[in-house]
Write a structure and sequence with these properties.
354 residues, alpha/beta, five-stranded parallel beta sheet, two-stranded antiparallel ribbon
Length: 354
């Protein structure tokens, strides 16, 4: 029996089940999939996850030092970010939420551009007009996120609708958190996507906390994924801490969108092991003993590291060496961007039209 039989299940079974390829201990659920895994892709996925974790840790430290004003990290959610990013193609568009900067970095957004935006300096593509963690990258089709929860979901569906009208064989990837599915924008978007069969891949990173509101208090729905079914949108539910499961689930949806077969809504089940942002203290509203389980035995990087080591694709100490190299890259970019001055005053009215 193949793990991919999941995709042959009924609509309800897919929306309430959980697609997995790697167990929490790093062993394969479907050995055939692991045997066919491309080594270059596997290492790129691993490096992408480590890059996010190292970058986030350094930027959080910067905020604590008072050198930047705000930061929201993706610790513990790296598999959901990188696994989905690896499916995208250059002609696709990305409409992110708070924790998808790693998608932009994976697609080619530079560290300097990302960090410049966080500093809001003269090198910031948005000229210092956005609060930190709002990067954008026109060259790589990465749209700036909106702080207004869920307002980006109609944008993603609208971009996909335009793609369909133009006849493009591309997809738009729209991201949200679990809290975003409780906003009206989500329901309007799913309705439009289902009716017009937009080539959109809508991805919910269900990290189980909408700031301080747990999923149990946010929705009575059996799962987040099942919400798509009422709008005629195929719903997929995958283990968001299993980078291979994320990759294959999102690839299934992206291939479908590019064929012209319509939208998919994916719930990637993960956990926010850190605070909602640098302004939050989660110990005030949740049991951190539960967090410790997700931070330890369910860690997505450790899980994939065990698998790659068993295959002989990762040597002892290689992860630490990789992290050290990335750490230096991030520090160098910070030094360059911290030395850049503020945007010139006259740029205040750039891009403003009568």
């Amino acid at each position: 029996m193949s793990a991919f039989d999941y995709f042959k299940g009924t609509a309800h079974a897919k929306a309430t089940g959980l697609f997995q390829l790697i167990r929490e201990d790093g062993t394969a659920i479907d050995q055939g999939v692991v045997d066919q895994l491309d080594r270059a892709l596997a290492r790129t996925l691993f490096e992408g996850m480590v890059r996010i974790r190292v970058t986030d840790a350094r930027m959080m430290a910067l905020q604590r030092q008072g050198r930047i004003g705000f930061y929201g990290e993706a610790m513990g959610q790296e598999a959901a970010v990188v696994g989905s990013a690896a499916v995208t193609q250059p002609e696709d568009w990305i409409v992110p939420a708070l924790r998808e900067a790693g998608v932009g970095l994976y697609r080619g957004m530079t560290l300097d551009s990302y960090i410049a935006q966080i500093f809001g300096n003269a090198a910031d593509p948005t000229k210092g007009r956005q609060m930190p963690c709002h990067p954008c990258d026109r060259e790589h089709h990465y749209v700036v996120m909106s702080s207004c929860v869920s307002t980006q979901i109609p944008h993603a569906v609208g971009i996909a609708m335009a793609m369909k009208i133009k006849g493009d064989k591309a997809a738009c990837f729209g991201y949200m958190g679990d809290g975003g599915t409780s906003e009206g924008d989500f329901h309007v978007s799913l309705n439009f996507a289902g009716v017009v069969k937009a080539p959109v891949v809508l991805i919910c990173q269900n990290n189980q906390w909408a700031i301080s509101t747990p999923g149990s208090l946010q929705t009575a729905s059996e799962t987040i994924a099942i919400k798509g079914l009422g709008y005629g949108v195929e719903a997929i539910r995958a283990d968001g801490n299993d980078v291979l499961a994320v990759y294959h689930a999102v690839k299934y949806a992206a291939d479908k969108a590019r064929r012209g077969d319509g939208p998919t809504f994916l719930e990637l089940l993960t956990y926010r092991v850190s605070a909602h942002s640098s302004s939050d203290d989660p110990s005030r509203y949740r049991d951190e003993n539960v967090t410790a389980i997700w931070r330890g035995e369910r860690d997505p990087i450790r899980r994939f590291e065990v698998l790659l080591t068993a295959k002989g694709w990762l040597e002892a100490g290689e992860k630490d060496a990789l992290a050290a190299t990335i750490e230096q890259d991030v520090r160098d970019a910070i030094a360059r961007q911290e030395a850049v001055g503020a945007p010139a005053l006259e740029t205040l009215i750039d891009d403003v039209f009568e």
